[in-house]
What does this fold into?
Amino acid sequence: MDIKDLSKKILDLVREKGFGLKPDEINVGEKIALIHSELSEALDAYRKKRFEGADNFGEELADVIVRTLHLAGIFDIDIEKEIIKKIESNKDREWDWENLNEQNSL
Ligand SMILES: [Mg+2]
It folds into this structure.
């Protein structure tokens, strides 16, 4: 199953459950906040070393992707194309690791 199939499956479930399929049927800010909340749940799972069972790290990361694909689908964003574009642009990007590591140590 590729990312387009996953997106379709998620949007099919969204349609079935009535979560909203058009921009005017959702609160975009709330959807973005919910993606943030799933990341926080992933951090919590990681810190508590919950790698199996309910609400485990992998499940929370999956929640982030499911919610992100739902939001991208609402706006008819070709997320596969966007991801590939981002990977390509990162290939030419340079990071100043020395300064980044200094900032991270604060
Ligand atoms: Mg969750």
Q: What stands out?
A: Helices lie at 3-17, 28-47, 57-74, 79-91, 97-104. The longest helix spans residues 28-47.
